[in-house]
Amino acid sequence: MITVLDELCVGCGHCVPFCSVDALSVFGRAVVDPDLCIGCEVCIEYCPNTALRWVDT
User: Fold this and answer.
1) What is the CATH number for 10?
2) Which of 6, 20, 30, 31 has most Cβ atoms within 10 angstroms of its Cβ?
3) What is the pLDDT of residues 23-40, one digit of tens each?
4) pLDDT for res 57
5) DSSP per-residue string spanning 13-24
6) How many domains does the chain have?
């Protein structure tokens, strides 16, 4: 599952358009919808602040 490190996310939204399943949105900070996220990790590559991480659940 992808998670957002709130202390690093500035809410720029740069990651949002790279999510092919629309699992990302921004409400002050990036938010990942775990029901939609397929774990492709593309958003991680495009986050300029390295605020997105993969965590095993």
Assistant:
1) 3.30.70.20
2) 30
3) 999 999 999 999 999 999
4) 73
5) -TTGGG-TT--E
6) 1
